[in-house]
Transcriptional regulator, LacI family (Lactobacillus kimbladii), 656 residues
Amino acid sequence: MKQYSIKDIAKLCNVSTATVSRVINNNGRFSEKTRQKVLDVIEQTGYKIDNNARSLRTNITFTIGILVPDIKNPFFADLVQKIEELLFTKNYSTIICNTDKNEQKEKAYLRMLENKKVDGIIVISGSYQHGFKFQSSLKEIPYICIDREPENFHNTVFISSNHYQGALDATNYLFQKGAKSPVVVVKKVSSSIKSRIDGFKESLKNHSLKFAKSRHELKLQSQSSFAKFLQKNPSTDSLFAVDDGIAMELLKYLKNLGYQVPQQIQVVGFDDVPAANIVTPKLTTIQQNTRKIAQTAVTSMMHAINKQNEKGSQFLIPTKLIIRETTK
Amino acid sequence: MKQYSIKDIAKLCNVSTATVSRVINNNGRFSEKTRQKVLDVIEQTGYKIDNNARSLRTNITFTIGILVPDIKNPFFADLVQKIEELLFTKNYSTIICNTDKNEQKEKAYLRMLENKKVDGIIVISGSYQHGFKFQSSLKEIPYICIDREPENFHNTVFISSNHYQGALDATNYLFQKGAKSPVVVVKKVSSSIKSRIDGFKESLKNHSLKFAKSRHELKLQSQSSFAKFLQKNPSTDSLFAVDDGIAMELLKYLKNLGYQVPQQIQVVGFDDVPAANIVTPKLTTIQQNTRKIAQTAVTSMMHAINKQNEKGSQFLIPTKLIIRETTK
């Protein structure tokens, strides 16, 4: 009786050896039809699952973990969904973990992903204070950082929108539309938000305005504190909100306080979440290219898994100004 | 030398045996401080990890899988986030899987969750056409269905908003505000959407209107097909959209077509997504109690894991009418 190998089985089934491995290990993606065909051929040939096929099990699980700080944030949800979709076309399943911007949770989820033997981890954003330290004791798991500055750029691939350029474009546009005294509005500061603030500052500099924190930066807390800021700084004529959530909160406050947008105060956001096109007036904002970010992350992950070393690479994805109704 | 048990270690560390087990197996949630303490005590006592502690590893992984059809849907994202939060307080990590309403994906993810040895699975909504068949070969994994009618109610716990009552309340309110000729607007039909349509029909019946599909139900496709429907049925004075996404699409079309909301046409949605409070006019809608749904799911899951049989139970969670500006 011929001794069949996994390659023979794959040939007889007209599928790849990876697919045969997935069926044997009941892991990853394959159709019921493929599954049945492979199992039939295995039975007909009397193929014994050898160590080679088994060893595939311990090495590769066809699963990728994603750490996301807040799945309720529409920008993150969109990005995660696009990554998942792309990974699935490459036969990988995605484990999504919501870390709540909580360091303890992040550690617990990293430990879990390690235990679940994922083939790679994609880390999206997260807390600014804590650098991403990843120490795997089980096997070396490659990881990709999106919008999260790693402690050591040499160990990973870093992918991010060009937040700096996007913020620069947004603020330049406000000046172009007559702004004389723009304010950047923030809440929590992450590494990507920091870049957006830097882009804002650069635009001020280019327009011969000296950045003064008390005058040009507002940490948004409530409608009343916002009203106080406007009273104290009556020349404020434009706001660059570092994300669309903040921008929409500002639109609500401005409406309540009786300000006309964009006639009295112009507003620009960042992210282009679906609601940006729904609010009245519709929000002018900076669109991130989530499809491109997702594609870059998945391509880099596949390279990392296949040991095509890209470590140390950084990808800056261009953004796009979307002009709507909150600017003149 | 005294032979220490896992109980002794737990006592010495002033933590539960479950925590000691988690540290030993490097699974689930614990602080670095706890980890260090447990490892220190193990070293000091010379405790040998016995079969008892090891067996915990094969039986329990402190992970729960969630299948969600579309993480970009704000209602689902909110629900998943709340479940994750509650599970984490109970020391469980959550694996979120986005199934894209795709049967093949759903199967692949169920297989993955089985391979990852999750302790339970929470299935949220999904395709209507395919009943949820779950056959685990590895171990019997308990599962809970939210908004997804199982093929066999005896094998699971079924949790859902009272979609029927919510739709009845919404439509009754339209009648109360003068509607004479309401239309239910749908896109895809899932089991929960079917209940909402049934509630709408019941309200018509209670108001002596005979439901005629061509007159009282619209499958929304585009602005032009919507415009045609209104031309053909000029007495249409109110729309019950089976979800807020559809409601907001209708608001956009009505604005483009020059209709006044609510003066000429009233609109009610369902779900109360964050954008419902942002659109102009603000959307009257039915609020689902996501916190209560999440709590019920997590409690049921803990019972199922602890073999406190609740199989066959059904929980219907009440909804709430939120009156805003799209109704008179």
